[in-house]
Amino acid sequence: MSDVEKSEAFHVEESSKSGSDSPVGGLKDGFETEFTLAEQKKIIHRVDRRLIIMVGLMYCVSLIDRTNLSVANVAGMKLDLGLGIGYRYSIITLVFFITYIVFQPPSTVIVRRLGPRIHLGTITVVWGGIMIGMGFVKSWQTLAGLRVLLGVLEAGFFPSCVYLLSTWYIRYETGVRYSYFYIIGCVSSAFAGILAYGLMQMEGLAGIRGWSWIFIMEGILTCIIGISGFILLVGFPDDAKRSWRFLNDRETKFIIDRVNADRGDAHTEPFNLKKFISGGNDLKVWLFALIYFNTTTITYALAFFLPIILQEGLGFDVGESQCLVAPPYALAGLLMFAMGHLGDKFRLRGPIIVFNMLLCIIGLPIVGWHSSAAVRYFGVFLVTAGANTNIPQAMTYQANNIRGQWKRAFCSATLVGFGGIGGIAGSLVFRTQDSPEYHNGIWACIACSLLNIILVGWLSLIFKRENRKVDAGRLNVDGSEVSI
């Protein structure tokens, strides 16, 4: 008897059928539990409050700390460290991603061994200390070296969070949870420009420049959030030690049983390097990673250069260019919220990604070529909203279509690793010599948007073929061919 005959077939991607026919999360009617519907919802909401809020806050400081170069740059760092010479600024932005990529693959293995509280709490506190140190640098080379160390530490954060979230929820709950997670980080960090403008007013205090205070105070904030992670962050639901202890044994069993009923991988097998790496044999893993690469190329380009574009290209002053970063990210937060709910309700992922990329394709030419600064700023809204909304959508796209704990761990690491490569690309697409129009960078972002639409179409064809094989009994639930 094949694996497909032993258990429910695992179909990939989406259907247009709503999951509202099921009490909680779209599980089949055959799922049985001792808890009433109201009790089930209370348990899930308790997980949401404890898990989503904490990782969201930690992700908030993570985004602020990796992208605050742009606000510090226009606040005087460019002149003090000579970052306008050659490619110095681009070098400082991209060296972070070299170590960020290299040190990501082992992260999802380490977090399983140490647990999220110890692993994520420790690296957050340490990189907060590095941020404080950035406030005292006297040369661009020292700043670049600290950015290398920052990449080593932050490499362990995002893939571990993506993996941790995927272990607590069933497939058609993940979209809105990833959106909440990213909204907290993205929208909060959007106001980093306003925060930086306020910190700039500390110029000269204790003989320290205003841009230095940006790093120092944000580093202190990161350390506080990291310490909170030691106390409040939860572990994995199947962790026998249960150091997080906010659910009792019956409630924990409910969480594990519903994940098993949905995709059958709530329990983790002992780590095996061969099994971990074998996840790379699935073409879908790399196509998901390419979608994430294209998306992060755009989002990082905006994060690193938007204040500079607003100042040089659209003619706003320093204060305006820092503060005007926030409204487009606020729109992105609203769109993330809406798309997260729509995606889970109608079980749609690919079409939402295409829609967001179309927003970018419309907005980018407006930013690059319209004669009015106000209209170009409107284009920034479209690009920022479309690109950033696709971050949680891309994460959900892969999480819904990958089965098996270690394959999911490998896919999370690969996805975020390619996101790091996107960070390198994003730090280079808007070149100094292209100022103030930056047309070459605009074209690069348009190309990334178009490629994502093509990749979603390619994946849709793969999904249809594999689903036909599952229905015919020729494909196992783990994606391997059935031996006859």
Short descriptors:
20 helices; transmembrane; transport; transmembrane helix; disordered C terminus; membrane; MFS; Growth Hormone, Chain: A; 72% helix; mainly alpha; 484 residues; disordered N terminus; globular
Summary of the model, kept short:
The chain is 72% helix and 0% strand. It has 484 residues and is mainly α.
CATH architecture: Up-down Bundle
Order of helices and strands: HHHHHHHHHHHHHHHHHHHH
The first-level CATH class is given as: Mainly Alpha
Q: What is the rounded Rg? A: 22 Å
Global structural class: mainly alpha
Helix content: over 70%
> Which spans have pLDDT < 50 for at least 5 consecutive residues?
1-9, 14-23, 480-484
Pfam family, one: MFS_1
GO molecular function: transmembrane transporter activity
Keywords: Membrane, Transmembrane, Transmembrane helix, Transport
Main location: membrane
